[in-house]
Amino acid sequence: MVKNSFFSIILKEQEENKENRGSVEFQVVSFTNKIRRLTSHLELHKKDFLSQRGLRKILGKRQRLLAYLSKKNIARYKELIGKLDIRERKTR
Predict the structure, then answer these.
(1) What pLDDT does 88 receive?
(2) Of 28, 57, 56, 19, nearest to 10 (Cα)?
(3) Where are the domains of the chain?
(4) What does each of the 92 residues of the chain score in pLDDT, given as a tens digit?
(5) Alpha-carbon distance 90 to 1, whole Å?
(6) CB-CB contact of 77 with 68 (8 Å)
(7) Rounded to an integer, what distance in angstroms lies between the CA atom of residue 64 and that of residue 31?
C-alpha cells in the first residue's frame, strides 16, 4: 500500500497543474496507476480475460509513451522511471 500512496502523491502534484494533463509524464503516471489497480484485480480474478486484454492495451500505450519520451528527452525519461520505480525499456 505504500506504493499506492506514493503514486497518489505524484498524481496530486501533476493535477495541481491543470494545463499539464496532456503531458507525457502525466499520462504515464495515470497509466501506471491503472496498471497497478488492474494487476491487483487480476490477482483475485484470474479468469477475467477482458481485464487482461485491457491491461495489455494499457501496457502497450505506456510502453509507446515511454519510448517517445526516451527519444525526445532522456533526462525527463530517467527521472520519470526513477520516480515511478518501473524498469527501463528493453533495447533491441
Answers:
(1) 80
(2) 28
(3) 23-83
(4) 455 555 566 666 655 656 678 889 999 999 999 999 999 999 999 999 999 999 999 999 999 999 999 999 999 999 999 999 888 877 65
(5) 28
(6) no
(7) 12
Query: For residue 57, with 0-12 CB atoms within 10 Å meaning exposed, 13-18 middle and 19 or more buried, which class applies?
Result: exposed
Q: Around Cβ 32, how many Cβ atoms within 10 Å?
A: 21
The residue behind cell 518501473 is 86
Q: Which segments within the chain are labelled E, that is strand?
A: none
Domain 23-83: give its CATH architecture. Answer: Orthogonal Bundle (1.10)
